[in-house]
Amino acid sequence: MAMPTQRAMIPDARPRVPRQRGAVLIVGLVILLVVTMVGIGGQQSTVLQERMAGNMRQNNIAFQAAEAALQLALSYLEEQAQPITPDDAGTHFVWTSCTVDDADAGRAACGRLQDDVLTNWKKAPAAVKEGTTYGAMAAALDGADPGSDADAYKFPDVIADPHIYIEVREDRYFPDTQANSFGEQIMYFYTVTSIGFGTNEQARAILQSTIARVYQ
What we know:
Layout: H1 23-79, E1 95-96, H2 100-105, H3 109-120, E2 132-133, H4 134-141, E3 163-173, E4 185-197, E5 204-213
Parallel strand pairs: 1-3
Antiparallel strand pairs: 2-3, 3-4, 4-5
Helix pairs in contact: 1-4
């Protein structure tokens, strides 16, 4: 009976590789997550900065429109050689102001600016009606028809034409001269309020200024 042959065991010369437990994969995923979050945060910051810059630009346009309307109204008042007769309809772009006696009597003129004009100016630009428009006053100042030619004088590149509201109040006084030779004089206080718009419905700016005039 033949005996089985025994083979000699040859040792494996290949280097043994340590067992992998996935640590490198986890670290890589964590780093990828951090990089992704940083990228998303940077993108959101960029979008926010762009929106802020856009809002600042819109507010600047609205302010410039309101400032232009205010200066136009002041120029209109300076051009008048005689006092402007105010009325409740603003026939000559000047409305009746509120005096102390008016306030005591509860007349409508005392609430017009706050209750009617400024409340109306809070609406959408297309619904703003109180006061007069920049185009109408610019046309009148240029000698054109403020009714039919107003569109040709509109403020450019805004969603709606700026609006202007002027009130006047009289104050009688005696000049401090020798023997009051000039007698009693009247000083007219014109309060100009203007609103300007940007290129969208959200941007708007309201300005106000008061000047005093004495007509000779």
